Amino acid sequence: MVKDDQTVIEEFNELVNMSASELGEWLKGESSQGAGWSKGDGSGETIGHESGRQIIEILEKNPNKDPKKYDEEDVAHMRRVVAYCKRHLAQEEKAKRDTESKSMFVACLKNRSLRDVVGVGVDVS
Fold first, then answer.
1. Is 10 within 8 Å of 77 (Cβ atoms)?
2. For residue 38, what are the β-bridge partners?
3. Close Cβ partners of 22 (under 8 Å, ≥ 6 residues apart)
4. Are 23 and 59 in contact (CB under 8 A)?
5. Is residue 31 classed exposed, middle or buried when 0-12, 13-18 and 19+ CB atoms within 10 A define those classes?
6. What pLDDT digit, counting tens, does each position of 43-66 carry?
7. Would residue 45 be called left, alpha or beta, if left means φ above 0 and alpha means ψ between -120 and 50 degrees?
Protein backbone atom coordinates (compact mmCIF):
# COMPACT_ATOMS: atom_id res chain seq x y z
CA MET A 1 0.00 0.00 0.00
CA VAL A 2 1.33 3.40 -0.97
CA LYS A 3 1.52 6.02 1.75
CA ASP A 4 -0.54 9.13 1.24
CA ASP A 5 1.32 12.37 0.52
CA GLN A 6 0.62 13.86 3.97
CA THR A 7 2.22 10.86 5.70
CA VAL A 8 5.24 11.03 3.38
CA ILE A 9 5.67 14.76 4.11
CA GLU A 10 5.42 14.20 7.88
CA GLU A 11 7.91 11.32 7.83
CA PHE A 12 10.32 13.25 5.59
CA ASN A 13 10.26 16.22 7.96
CA GLU A 14 10.89 13.90 10.92
CA LEU A 15 13.73 11.99 9.25
CA VAL A 16 15.52 14.91 7.61
CA ASN A 17 17.12 16.48 10.65
CA MET A 18 19.73 18.70 9.05
CA SER A 19 19.14 22.22 7.78
CA ALA A 20 19.80 23.04 4.14
CA SER A 21 23.06 24.77 5.11
CA GLU A 22 24.22 21.86 7.30
CA LEU A 23 23.50 19.39 4.52
CA GLY A 24 25.23 21.64 2.00
CA GLU A 25 28.38 21.71 4.13
CA TRP A 26 28.27 17.92 4.57
CA LEU A 27 27.89 17.38 0.83
CA LYS A 28 31.08 19.38 0.20
CA GLY A 29 33.16 16.96 2.28
CA GLU A 30 35.15 13.94 1.16
CA SER A 31 33.13 11.48 3.26
CA SER A 32 30.00 12.50 1.43
CA GLN A 33 31.51 12.49 -2.04
CA GLY A 34 32.49 8.82 -1.99
CA ALA A 35 29.51 7.35 -0.17
CA GLY A 36 27.05 5.24 -2.09
CA TRP A 37 26.44 4.01 -5.61
CA SER A 38 27.69 5.92 -8.61
CA LYS A 39 25.00 7.42 -10.82
CA GLY A 40 26.74 5.72 -13.73
CA ASP A 41 26.59 8.79 -15.93
CA GLY A 42 30.31 9.53 -15.83
CA SER A 43 29.88 12.51 -13.50
CA GLY A 44 31.42 10.71 -10.51
CA GLU A 45 28.50 11.82 -8.34
CA THR A 46 26.71 9.22 -6.26
CA ILE A 47 22.97 8.70 -6.20
CA GLY A 48 22.85 9.73 -2.54
CA HIS A 49 24.85 12.89 -3.18
CA GLU A 50 22.42 13.89 -5.91
CA SER A 51 19.54 13.10 -3.54
CA GLY A 52 21.13 15.36 -0.92
CA ARG A 53 21.22 18.23 -3.41
CA GLN A 54 17.53 17.67 -4.16
CA ILE A 55 16.76 17.68 -0.43
CA ILE A 56 18.52 21.05 -0.11
CA GLU A 57 16.32 22.44 -2.88
CA ILE A 58 13.18 21.18 -1.11
CA LEU A 59 14.29 22.64 2.24
CA GLU A 60 15.25 26.00 0.75
CA LYS A 61 12.09 26.50 -1.27
CA ASN A 62 9.82 25.66 1.68
CA PRO A 63 11.69 26.54 4.90
CA ASN A 64 8.47 26.61 6.95
CA LYS A 65 7.57 23.08 5.80
CA ASP A 66 4.08 24.10 4.71
CA PRO A 67 2.59 20.90 3.22
CA LYS A 68 0.62 22.93 0.65
CA LYS A 69 3.82 24.35 -0.84
CA TYR A 70 5.33 21.05 -1.95
CA ASP A 71 4.79 20.09 -5.57
CA GLU A 72 4.47 16.57 -7.00
CA GLU A 73 8.19 16.38 -7.77
CA ASP A 74 9.05 17.33 -4.17
CA VAL A 75 6.72 14.69 -2.74
CA ALA A 76 8.04 12.05 -5.15
CA HIS A 77 11.61 12.71 -3.96
CA MET A 78 10.49 12.84 -0.32
CA ARG A 79 8.88 9.42 -0.84
CA ARG A 80 12.21 8.01 -2.13
CA VAL A 81 14.14 9.57 0.78
CA VAL A 82 11.71 8.21 3.39
CA ALA A 83 11.82 4.72 1.87
CA TYR A 84 15.62 4.76 1.67
CA CYS A 85 16.11 6.02 5.21
CA LYS A 86 13.60 3.63 6.75
CA ARG A 87 15.07 0.68 4.87
CA HIS A 88 18.61 1.54 5.92
CA LEU A 89 17.77 2.44 9.49
CA ALA A 90 16.21 -1.02 9.76
CA GLN A 91 19.65 -2.39 8.85
CA GLU A 92 21.27 -0.47 11.71
CA GLU A 93 21.77 -3.59 13.84
CA LYS A 94 23.96 -5.15 11.16
CA ALA A 95 25.97 -1.93 10.88
CA LYS A 96 26.57 -1.92 14.64
CA ARG A 97 28.20 -5.36 14.39
CA ASP A 98 30.06 -4.85 11.10
CA THR A 99 32.74 -2.22 11.72
CA GLU A 100 33.80 -2.27 8.07
CA SER A 101 30.38 -1.09 6.90
CA LYS A 102 29.72 1.56 9.55
CA SER A 103 31.32 4.59 7.99
CA MET A 104 29.84 3.95 4.52
CA PHE A 105 26.43 3.24 6.07
CA VAL A 106 26.47 6.46 8.06
CA ALA A 107 27.79 8.53 5.16
CA CYS A 108 25.06 7.23 2.84
CA LEU A 109 22.37 8.13 5.37
CA LYS A 110 23.96 11.48 6.05
CA ASN A 111 23.87 12.27 2.32
CA ARG A 112 20.12 12.10 2.73
CA SER A 113 20.24 14.57 5.62
CA LEU A 114 20.21 12.31 8.65
CA ARG A 115 22.62 14.04 11.01
CA ASP A 116 22.51 11.54 13.83
CA VAL A 117 22.30 7.84 13.21
CA VAL A 118 21.40 6.60 16.65
CA GLY A 119 23.55 3.85 18.08
CA VAL A 120 26.03 3.50 15.24
CA GLY A 121 28.65 5.67 16.91
CA VAL A 122 30.79 6.52 13.90
CA ASP A 123 31.85 10.06 13.20
CA VAL A 124 32.28 10.66 9.49
CA SER A 125 32.45 14.44 9.61
1. no
2. 46
3. 115
4. yes
5. middle
6. 667 677 788 889 999 999 999 999
7. beta
Contact 70, 9 (CB under 8 A): yes
Q: In which region does residue 114 sit, left (phi positive, over 0), alpha (psi from -120 to 50) or beta (all else)?
A: beta
- Would the pTM count as exceeding 0.90? no
Q: Could you give the dihedral angle defined by the CA atoms of residues 64, 69, 71 and 75, in that order, rounded to the nearest 10 degrees?
A: 40
Question: CB of 29 within 8 A of CB of 18?
Answer: no
Distances in Å between the Cα of 19 and the Cα atoms of 71, 102, 108, 119, 123 are 20, 23, 17, 22, 18
Helix (H/G/I), strand (E/B), else coil: 38:
strand
Q: Ramachandran region of residue 41, left (φ > 0), alpha (ψ -120 to 50) or beta?
A: alpha
